[in-house]
Design goal:
The longest helix is centred in the middle third of the chain and has 14 residues. 16% of the residues lie in helices and 40% in strands. It starts with a helix and ends in a 5-residue tail after the last strand. β5 and β6 form a beta hairpin. The protein contains three helices and eleven strands. An eight-stranded antiparallel β-barrel has the order 1-2-3-4-6-9-10-11. With 232 residues, it is an alpha+beta fold.
């Protein structure tokens, strides 16, 4: 628990695009659904850039890139009347690289470690897939709304996969941090979008109730994923 909290606090300090960077004001106007629709309509489109995946180095207290690739993503406007959310969809997201969130000492031969090694191997074999994220601009606060663009809250949807390891099939849920990290959209000759997200935990054979994994927390490290941001 202590180690996980320390890593999460380290993570918050790495990148600028976090909700914690913003001081809200009682006079802020929170956008209505109609206003939200108009804002999201501006952001609709296709974008491209580099996706970086970072893991923490507890020795240096820094996050370091362990995987990167050129990628594309689209922003699409939903239809609240039909229960459809506005989404940012990352194409061919390398979900198999989330196996790096599981960390096990070579000297650990416990039953739990053996199971988690098998889980990690199963995750590493997953093919890339599109990852959907809800997004919205909260208010007219100057942090979120500025002259030529917006900062938006990004909430990746939970991914559920059926994986077989140790001769059993398991429901594995991939859980991302919610309402904590933001993206930025800027209007120009060519509109641009950049964002970050945090992979928080796994839940095995039960729907997740929190950001804590369904196994010992000492085996988990949070990961940062960015799209369109410069390498740190």
């Amino acid at each position: 628990m202590k180690n996980l909290k320390a890593l999460m606090m380290l993570l918050i300090g790495v990148f600028a695009l976090t909700v914690t960077s913003c001081n809200t004001d009682d006079g802020d106007h929170y956008y209505t659904q109609e206003e939200q629709d108009a804002i999201q309509a501006k952001m609709v489109g296709a974008y491209s850039g580099t996706l970086y995946m970072y893991m923490p180095n507890t020795s240096t207290k820094k996050y370091e890139v362990y995987h990167s690739l050129p990628t594309t993503w689209t922003a699409s406007k939903g239809n609240p009347a039909l229960g459809k959310d506005s989404l940012i969809t990352i194409s061919n997201f390398p979900i198999n690289k989330l196996d790096s969130a599981i960390v096990i000492s070579d000297k650990d031969n416990s039953d739990e470690a053996k199971t988690l090694r098998a889980l990690r191997t199963a995750i590493s074999k997953l093919p890339a897939e599109n990852l959907e994220c809800k997004f919205f601009v909260p208010s007219d606060n100057s942090y979120y709304t500025f002259n030529n663009g917006y900062r938006f809250i990004l909430n990746p949807l939970i991914v559920k996969k059926q994986l077989t390891y140790e001769e059993k099939q398991h429901d594995v849920y991939f859980v991302f941090s919610m309402n904590s990290y933001v993206g930025e959209w800027t209007q120009g000759v060519m509109n641009s979008m950049k964002f970050q997200m945090v992979f928080a935990s796994f839940s095995i054979d039960k729907a997740p109730q929190s950001y804590y994994p369904s196994f010992s927390q000492k085996y988990l490290r949070p990961l940062i994923i960015t799209c369109g941001l410069d390498k740190q």
